[in-house]
Amino acid sequence: MEAIKSITFAVNKTKPGAEDAARFLAGIAECEGVKATIRSDYPLLPDALVEQDLCCAIGGDGTLLGVLDAALESNCAVLGVNIGKLGFLATFTQEEAGQELTHFIKGEYGIDERSVLRCTTRQGESMHALNDVVLKETDGSGLIRLQVSSNGNAVSEYHCDGLIFSTPTGSTAYNLSAGGPIIGPRVSAIAMTPICPHTLGNRSVIFDDSSLISVKHREPGPCPRITIDGRARFSSEDNFPIEITAVDRSLRLMQNLDYSHFAIVRDKLNWGDPTIR
After folding, report:
1. What mean pLDDT is predicted for residues 89-103?
2. Is 61 an active-site residue?
3. Do 6 and 51 touch, CB atoms closer than 8 A?
4. For residue 210, which of 180, 245, 241 has the smallest C-alpha distance?
5. How far apart are CA 95 and CA 28, in angstroms?
6. Is pLDDT of 276 > 60?
7. Average pLDDT, the chain
8. What is the rounded (10 degree) CA torsion for 255, 250, 164, 58?
9. Which residues, 6 or more positions from 125, have their beta carbon under 8 angstroms from its beta carbon?
10. Choosing from 53, 61, 112, 229, which is the catalytic residue?
């Protein structure tokens, strides 16, 4: 891999110790002759990583999600440093990042490509999602009815609490909690999982990532709330129908050369030691 010449450290100031970690890691980078910039204006603006080789997101998985648009815009690699518990995306502790950063700067690293979704509303507003796009009823008063099609072909109509559209990365998040499948991060797929469907016949559906998925709201009343990676982001309330598709760019996560996705999954889900004795 190419050597790293410039690093932006994106700091989530709400995480105790994150700013100290950024200064510590920036010091290591500067000792190696790397141009280091510390930014605390999180989440990053889309042009914040132009001409940067690496963005080190310091905080947790949520912090890493906050650099998504900027990383996609610049094709900058992202290194996630977790201040606290081990994350699915921010997989390095401060100590591990400190030990590995010199090797990464020299080009001794791997890149884990993660697919990204785009959700577009009827108003033409669009947002990117690394984990998921979630549609849910707004006031807790009852079920919603959503009609789903793929590439112009009807899939089904769902009477449910909501729908989750997940990337393979997000398959271990809300999708998993709702009974959806775990998908390996290199699989080219979009998972759709209904939340508490009214009929037992509604199960998760796996679309290939070339699919253009359309969702219509099929009854009068307030439109379902749309959350992108756990946050409500659209300014308009008149959003439906919406379209969901995979974008042609991926998030480039920097990892150790011996990185194992399922080692992280085993640890987070308490699957135990897989060693066969």
Report:
1. 94
2. yes
3. yes
4. 245
5. 12
6. no
7. 91
8. 40
9. 234, 235, 236, 239
10. 61
Q: What would the pLDDT profile of 8-47 be if each residue is shown by its tens digit?
A: 999 999 999 999 999 999 999 999 999 999 999 888 999 9
Per-residue pLDDT reduced to its tens digit, 140-150: 667 899 999 99
CB 249 within 8 A of CB 119: no
User: What is the percent of the chain with per-residue pLDDT over 90, rounded to a whole number?
Assistant: 75
- Residues 51-67: what's their mean pLDDT? 95
- Please state, in angstroms and rounded to a whole number, the distance separating the CA atoms of residues 109 and 137: 43
pLDDT at site 274? 64
Q: Contacts by 152-155 with C-beta closer than 8 Å and gap 24+?
A: 152/212, 152/214, 155/205
Do residues 170 and 130 touch, judged by C-beta distance below 8 A? yes
Domains observed in the chain: 6-109+256-269 (3.40.50.10330), 116-248 (2.60.200.30)
pLDDT per position as a tens digit, 114-163: 999 999 999 999 999 999 999 998 776 678 999 999 999 999 999 999 99
